[in-house]
């Protein structure tokens, strides 16, 4: 069994090939790609792993059909390749997702346009199933009839409906567990991880990196960690970290975009993921993901000027978002009280206020900074491994890589999954949660509920099982109450029963 051990005193005595700042999906993929090169990485995260924007995505792995429609072929091929990687190596968490786009004979969303577009999508992604188990194969796309569309999506707006485009992407059922598997794969090959460790100083000699100094937020103790390479992958904090370690580099996060997805306490209107727009083919398309048979809708966007920590979506934006969703599905009649969770985060924006099209990377030496310091600012979950791979190809060009098969198949996997309404009352489930607490650096209650399991995706269920979780933690009454209050705040729950 691979254990993530929080041992800053011993880690400060070790030497590493690289230090990664940031424990989101890009930091995790950097650690994974580092051990694939037989390098020894240390990852330092100021909060908990898989926090902030990384946790709050739509639980999908897109293959890039939209890039094909826009003529962005390199991004299309990258997304197809990385989607296959997830389906091939994490089949316990990633599965085929049928998608449907109702067609109303407007714009590009016409039967005569979508039929050849889906054919081209299939031809250009012809290798999408190579190496993937048959159960996870993605069928080809097609245009279906008006009557078949209504059969699969009874609540569809039938006025002007001519049919629907159907294709397949991939969905992640238990993203928290996939993320932890990534960390444990890296840990099985010698990677070390520390959460609640804030890097506050770069250590250099002759203008070359030798390590970092960091504050342990739990103990209040300062530590120095040693490595000749430091990669800043701190997500929304990337530019701030770069400034604190070197100087301000505006391109790393020049503009900010607040993005959000909303989980409603309603059953999904179709077993298919739906691409819908308020104007029947006109306007921004929203994606209706039937995650665990609940309605998860995204993605809302809003340019912001505030700090990277300001991720609360204004109420008027949520009201407009709900109004748009109701226009897209007649009779849905959603209200604010139907909201279960709002998943929000900050991503880099382009000059026009839209989401950046590609990641930004920086070798600080080329801008007058120290040798051995690098920064990356990523955008997409689907291509996060590819960005990590490209980054380490640049930083360690001579490193030899082992195969994914060798690395991933050699690591232990213990799939953990909870149905949406399920309460972990069985003794085996209690034992599994205790094992997670003891072996996955669970420092606080919210770590377990929000970032090690999907228990927190159903806030009422999370609060209801607190009596079951309390015996698993060694806490004084005061500390337990404080951690419960912290969890309540992160769940955005106003009242709680202890």
Question: Would you write up a description of this structure?
Answer:
This protein has 16 helices and 18 strands. With 498 residues, it is α/β, with parallel strands linked by helices. The protein folds into 3 domains: 8-54 and 176-253 and 357-407, FAD/NAD(P)-binding domain (3-Layer(bba) Sandwich); 92-172 and 254-349, D-Amino Acid Oxidase, subunit A, domain 2 (D-Amino Acid Oxidase, Chain A, domain 2, 2-Layer Sandwich); 427-491, no CATH class. Strands 3, 4, 5, 6, 12, 13, 14, 15 and 16 form a 9-stranded mixed beta sheet that branches. It has a 6-stranded mixed beta sheet with strand order 7-2-1-11-18-17. A 3-stranded antiparallel beta sheet has the order 8-9-10. Helix 2 packs parallel to helix 7 (175-187) and helix 2 crosses helix 10 (384-395).
Kindly summarize this structure in a few lines.
By secondary structure, the chain is of the alpha/beta class. The protein has helices at residues 8-11, 25-36, 65-69, 73-89, 111-124, 146-152, 175-187, 238-245, 315-328, 384-395, 404-409, 427-439, 445-452, 459-464, 466-469, 477-491; strands at residues 18-21, 41-44, 60-61, 94-103, 142-144, 163-172, 192-194, 197-205, 208-216, 222-226, 230-232, 255-267, 273-276, 286-291, 294-304, 339-349, 360-363, 373-377.
Strands, helices and their partners?
Layout: H1 8-11, E1 18-21, H2 25-36, E2 41-44, E3 60-61, H3 65-69, H4 73-89, E4 94-103, H5 111-124, E5 142-144, H6 146-152, E6 163-172, H7 175-187, E7 192-194, E8 197-205, E9 208-216, E10 222-226, E11 230-232, H8 238-245, E12 255-267, E13 273-276, E14 286-291, E15 294-304, H9 315-328, E16 339-349, E17 360-363, E18 373-377, H10 384-395, H11 404-409, H12 427-439, H13 445-452, H14 459-464, H15 466-469, H16 477-491
Parallel strand pairs: 1-2, 1-11, 2-7, 4-13, 11-18
Antiparallel strand pairs: 3-6, 4-6, 5-6, 8-9, 9-10, 12-15, 12-16, 13-14, 14-15, 17-18
